[in-house]
């Protein structure tokens, strides 16, 4: 039996194309939907007027929001609310108490990134909601509306009727107003974020990690994600029915998924909204919704390429553990230092350098010592040698999921890194989802999830501990990226999807994988994918489903300020002409453009080096060959460039030995010229446009 | 980075059609799939050899099970496992220690039900698994295989390495091996089980409550559910990718979803498997997997029809609360007693008879007094009057979700019921999902879910408290039915889906709803749907999408041992000829048959009265008219029956005023005769086959 009846809202969103913002009466009349009398309108539009959001309450007093683009619904009325483990949920019986609007148009500078300058032009609407019941609890829902997306978050003030919030679940809904196609990874499975992307109708999504990218029936592209995930649990979206989703927060080991006291806010729930795939990538919404740099001077944060003692371990030829196959020996590392130095690559990653790898460390890392090298790794000598060769070692902290154990060694660990000239440390959390080991104050052990509240905070604790020693972080098995590199510029990159390593093993990444990444994972931020395996072979010489040219293009397509040349020095020696591009390509950009692209099919990026006037172009395709014509309208007028082209050679295809077929070409180009990029199946093309 | 690689299992299940059971070498060779050497085979078949299950371990030592029918996979290798909040999960590194087989073929008697005699013919396989890691934890997975389905459960022995189990999640997977169509309701939404059914491709399911019914591409029908849900959290199935699902347990207010100590078992995870829809209904797997009657003599449990002070409240004409519109007045109840007595209906439900309804009680029932009548309800006089008229009052305990409050009144509440001749009490838990109020020992309040472990146990505590007073229970807003009526025969029925009440309100049940129920909700067990609204009008005279004949047919289609005649006496007075069927139809059956049916389209049931030789036939359809021919091969040979037919009249359709068109016919029939049932759109047909 139920006594309250939820009535559908009569949605009217036919013509909200007014350019004049929320005060415009035309918008109000054409856009608004049914709501109780006596409540203020709560409507906001993007600066260009194309995107409109509205908040209202339904017949049961449940707050709902909706989003439209050019008057057509993108998000149908979707409920807001919050459940607690020890208090009635906040959902029904709400009234809109007040609505406040603001606007802002500013710019800020990224210390490193895809773009130097980020414009933040948005309108803001703050809707104050209060329960009409005895408890009279209240919260604000705050919307930020840009031309390329919408973010909103809950802001709970300190209040007597809710002195603490033990959050059982967030009741936010995402009811997509149209059918379409979705690209998504399942959430809450054992292998965390490391799944291939599904491409299904929106209504065939299961429970998905964010970002989830959708192309709606009317061609609008959207991506649902979150920004500024701090002191809260990461959100997945669970398909309920049809094209409707609800938030599901990641569990922790405690009864509430999130615990809050005093005043608190949720992360921003975000919709990137664009007419095409490229528009999703070009949005700065995620970064704009994060707080500015909190670390002060970050001139010590150094983007850069690196090589590393790694691929041979991944392939099973060397071991992390000590013994006859130990990879991180002084001699081996010297080889890598020499190679890096020779090609101007500033970093050398060394995995397995420390004590703790000998047993079954995955999911069981309590033997890891983060300031104690293995006997055959002469850390002091190598640090000195690296310095003499103008390169730096990159540290490595693999926790094996023993996170409290790691935290207890923060200071010696990062001091050791700093003392050995390591500007960057790669961290690792190899443990199945839900198997992070947390030691409580009483000595008992709890099992945490990589994306639960406690771990979300842990990843930030690492940044803070590292910053004290001017060390930057590249997190593997991380929490997803929600733009926090703005706030913590020493969070250079992370993994958080299937990277190159899967090409070492059976079950390799298919040719579409990197194309999928471009408009899904890469919407989060930098990924340490570790491209550049020019040998195109994994363990036991198993073939990688890529051409060589595609490997090169990945350096432009898959942005990261720390970009690995993942293959071995001896393999690179076999491909000197192709390797030239890896040696040349920068990792820090003045500007970035998406020249073309369809989610999961193909994409072409152009990026301008931050330290020169050179541009770089990278284009990749899935298993289908394509000819893509791009116009060089981004080049400086009147300047001549030398195009150094690395392209799929005759007969190239990912599917046969012809994957090694590559061709090189050099020609002069200028602004406005058109280039046709011929991509082989599973292929790509990389171009350096060197300003002459 | 991941260091362990999950390899797909090479599934070979091409020809497991041997009839000879698990020992047959042909089965082993054709059915088994890859597994580590040195482990015993773990294969079991159904008594008729058509269904085969196998357990193995994958390359990471994860236990997996699979199910095939006639050699064709129904369930692909699906993992087993268990996560804890304070210990490493049990999933990887398992070895099969031993496999034991058993068989059994017995029968038992239902004190009331759809069938008097239940045959339990099954094979059993017990697979003992042990971790090869340091902890050496172990569990058994026990499979029961019938000709019409498979059940399995985890059985954890008492063991030092797992002294208690704080279960964070159960890792059981359900990877359906074929595409097909699914009928399902979303899980974990605010309105609990009260959603319309979705009919979608299997891969478009979201997170579904069980039972979820599927018709696979090869025509096989399956339903996933659970049996014997005791001291555990209810399970939903979350679609992960494609046609794959994983278990999701219902949360509680504590950190673990389930807490166990010593030796413990899960409920049975069940697959009904049949060649057609009717075969799903005819399975006795669910009942067979429950423990026998634990209450001893249950001759005091009385199936029966009832009328009630209810529909006028649901329609908004009367109120539960005291005041001028109060429904449960002495005078009103007398009218219902008189009506029930006149037509031989043994029960009169009265809602709103007690103190506690005056405020906003839904989700907030702490004012409810379960032994204190409202001033205008003379309980003693009415009990006496009812007895004098040969009928009994049916009690009503609405908790409003204040469950600890209710439990504190168990004894006075059930004593009051017994003292007033109430053999049955209808209970209610009107609170949104996750909003059950539990008062802890220290006075703090926790919020529980209707289907979480604590509430699962609460519903059983009610049965035990009621049994002490020889009272039976009809639970509304219940936990789902998992066959526990076998163990607790005083659990007569429950709601647990959208019942008739939704026809009082806007957003009425569509014509397909009851047809959907037949092969989904009704696979659980009895539902107190409350059919029989012959006026076919809800609040404000809004039309119900049914014909009159369909209302009658529902008494045969939707089995319940307590079956309401939900309309008002004054309305029934307008339909005397149709009402005759309601007066005649029994609620307790000797035998039941599904004569035909397609999930969500139509269904015809025949049931034999337990107290006579009469048979009753009920047939219903969705929005489409149909002619269904049934052969009366279930009648006794050589006997003549009078068929009293209640059928859709000329022009009948749910869509217009012609929904009231009904026709009556009487004719003689005998075994082997064929009848053609002509069902109108949204219509039905009811037949009494009176043995002459």
Automatic annotation (TrEMBL), chains A, B:
InterPro entries: Aldolase_TIM, GH, GH-type_carb-bd, GH97_C, GH97_catalytic, GH97_N, Glycosyl_hydrolase_97
Listed SUPFAM superfamilies: (Trans)glycosidases
Glycosyl-hydrolase 97 C-terminal oligomerisation domain ranges (all copies): 588-690
Molecular function GO labels: carbohydrate binding; hydrolase activity
Pfam families in alphabetical order: GH97_C, GH97_N, Glyco_hydro_97
Signal peptide: 1-18
All residue ranges annotated as the Glycosyl-hydrolase 97 N-terminal domain in the record: 45-292
Keywords for the protein's UniProt record, in alphabetical order: Hydrolase, Signal
Boundaries of every Glycosyl-hydrolase 97 catalytic domain copy: 310-496
Keyword Hydrolase assigned: yes
PANTHER family reported for this sequence: GLUCAN 1,4-ALPHA-GLUCOSIDASE SUSB, GLUCAN 1,4-ALPHA-GLUCOSIDASE SUSB-RELATED
Official protein name in the record: Glycoside hydrolase family 97 protein
């Amino acid at each position: 039996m139920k006594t309250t009846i939820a009535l559908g809202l009569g949605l009217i969103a036919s013509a909200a194309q007014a350019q004049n913002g929320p005060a415009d009466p035309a918008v109000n009349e054409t856009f608004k939907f049914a709501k109780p009398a006596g409540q203020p309108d709560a409507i906001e539009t993007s600066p260009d007027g194309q995107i409109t959001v509205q908040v209202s309450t339904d017949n049961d007093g449940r707050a709902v929001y909706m989003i439209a683009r050019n008057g057509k619904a993108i998000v149908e009325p979707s409920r807001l609310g919050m459940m607690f483990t020890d208090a009635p949920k906040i959902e029904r019986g709400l009234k809109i108490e007040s609505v406040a609007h603001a606007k802002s148009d500013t710019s800020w500078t990224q210390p490193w990134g895809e773009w130097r300058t980020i414009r933040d032009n948005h309108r803001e609407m703050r809707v104050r909601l209060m329960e009409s019941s005895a408890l009279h609890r209240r919260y604000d829902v705050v919307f930020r509306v840009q031309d390329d997306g919408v973010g909103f978050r809950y802001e709970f003030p300190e209040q007597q009727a809710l002195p603490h919030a033990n959050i059982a679940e967030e009741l936010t809904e995402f009811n997509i107003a149209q059918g379409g196609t979705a690209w998504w990874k399942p959430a809450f499975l054992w292998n965390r974020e490391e799944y291939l992307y599904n491409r299904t109708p929106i209504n065939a999504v299961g429970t998905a990690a964010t970002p989830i990218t959708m192309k709606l029936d009317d061609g609008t592209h959207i991506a649902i994600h979150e920004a500024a995930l701090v002191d809260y649990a990461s959100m997945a979206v669970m398909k309920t029915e049809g094209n409707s989703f609800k938030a599901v927060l990641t569990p922790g080991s405690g009864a509430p998924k999130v615990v809050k006291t005093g005043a608190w806010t949720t992360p921003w729930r975000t919709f990137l909204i664009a007419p095409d795939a490229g528009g999703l990538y070009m949005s700065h919404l995620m970064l704009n919704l994060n707080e500015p740099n909190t670390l002060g001077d970050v001139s010590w944060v150094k983007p850069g390429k690196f090589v590393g003692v790694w691929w041979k371990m991944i392939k099973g030829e060397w071991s992390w553990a000590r013994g006859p196959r130990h990879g991180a020996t002084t001699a081996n590392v010297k080889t890598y230092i020499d190679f890096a130095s020779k090609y101007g690559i500033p970093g050398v990653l060394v995995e397995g350098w420390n004590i703790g790898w000998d047993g079954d460390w995955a999911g069981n890392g309590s033997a890891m010592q983060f300031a104690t090298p293995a006997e055959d790794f002469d850390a002091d000598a190598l640090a000195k040698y690296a310095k003499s060769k103008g390169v730096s070692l990159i540290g490595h902290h693999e926790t094996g999921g023993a996170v409290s154990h790691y935290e207890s060694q923060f200071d010696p660990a990062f001091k050791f890194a700093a003392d050995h000239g390591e500007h960057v440390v790669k961290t690792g959390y190899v443990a199945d989802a839900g198997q992070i080991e947390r030691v409580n104050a009483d000595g008992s052990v709890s099992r945490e999830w990589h994306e639960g509240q406690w771990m979300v905070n842990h990843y930030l604790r690492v940044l803070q501990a590292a910053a004290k020693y001017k060390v930057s972080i590249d997190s593997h098995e991380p929490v997803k990226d929600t733009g926090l590199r703005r706030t913590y510029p020493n969070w250079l990159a992370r993994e958080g999807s299937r990277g190159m390593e899967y090409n070492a093993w059976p079950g390799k990444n298919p040719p579409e994988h990197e194309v999928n990444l471009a408009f899904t994972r890469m919407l989060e931020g930098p990924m340490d994918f570790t491209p550049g395996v020019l040998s195109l072979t994994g363990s036991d010489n198993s073939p990688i489903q890529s051409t060589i040219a595609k490997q090169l293009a990945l350096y432009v397509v898959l942005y990261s300020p720390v970009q690995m040349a993942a293959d071995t020095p001896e393999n690179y020696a076999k491909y000197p002409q192709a390797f030239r591009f890896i040696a040349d390509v920068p990792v820090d950009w003045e500007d970035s453009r998406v020249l073309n692209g369809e989610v999961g099919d193909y994409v072409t990026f152009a990026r301008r080096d931050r330290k020169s006037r050179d541009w770089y172009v990278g284009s990749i395709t899935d298993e289908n060959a394509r000819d893509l014509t791009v116009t060089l309208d981004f080049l400086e007028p009147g300047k001549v460039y030398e195009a150094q082209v690395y392209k799929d050679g005759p007969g190239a295809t990912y599917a046969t030995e012809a994957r090694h077929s590559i061709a090189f070409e050099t020609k002069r180009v200028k602004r406005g010229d058109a280039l046709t990029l011929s991509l082989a199946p599973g292929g790509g093309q990389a171009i350096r446009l060197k300003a002459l």
